[in-house]
Design a protein that fits this description.
Layout (H helix, E strand, L loop, with lengths): L1 E2 L13 E4 L5 E4 L4 E9 L9 E9 L3 E4 L7 H19 L10 H5 L8 H23 L3
Parallel strand pairs: 2-5
Antiparallel strand pairs: 1-6, 2-3, 4-5, 4-6
Helix pairs in contact: 1-3
Length: about 140
């Protein structure tokens, strides 16, 4: 697990690579820092609410955490644990200042249940399909 080293003002219009900052919006850069499959978690602001899943070349803001090297964990399974369970854990451990923020220990001290890889894959795909269905219904005209 690492964070990036860049600042928001490093972004450029129409850059070649995604630049993940501390929001849902993905900026762009002409350079990349990582080339991997990763879950990206902003470290302050709306903690436990914004997660990006990306596979390829990208850059990170200095306050965005990168979780990668998925050896015995299916990344989609872990992504959904983050989406549905991490916020409560993080807010419980947060030393509330003016802006809620994450610390590395919030990740490393998070105890989660990990079933076998086959079950993880099925659970991950189920939630990915559920998220897609929810997105489709949200786009429907009312």
């Amino acid at each position: 697990m690492k964070t990036g080293s860049r600042n928001h003002q490093d972004s450029v219009d129409n850059g070649k690579y995604p630049f993940f900052v501390r929001s849902e919006k993905v900026e762009r850069l002409n350079e990349y820092d990582f080339d991997t499959k990763a879950i990206l978690v902003p470290g302050d602001g709306r903690i436990g609410e914004i997660f990006h899943y990306y596979d390829g070349k990208f850059a990170l803001h200095q306050r965005v955490y990168k979780v990668d090297n998925f050896k015995e964990v299916n990344p989609l399974y872990l992504l959904n644990l983050f989406k549905y369970k991490f916020k409560k854990h993080a807010l419980r451990l947060n030393a509330q200042g003016t802006v809620p923020s994450l610390r590395l220990s919030m990740f490393t001290n998070w105890n989660i249940l990990i079933p076998n890889l086959n079950e993880q894959q099925k659970i991950g795909l189920f939630f990915q399909q559920l998220d897609s269905l929810i997105t489709l219904h949200q786009r429907k005209p009312k």
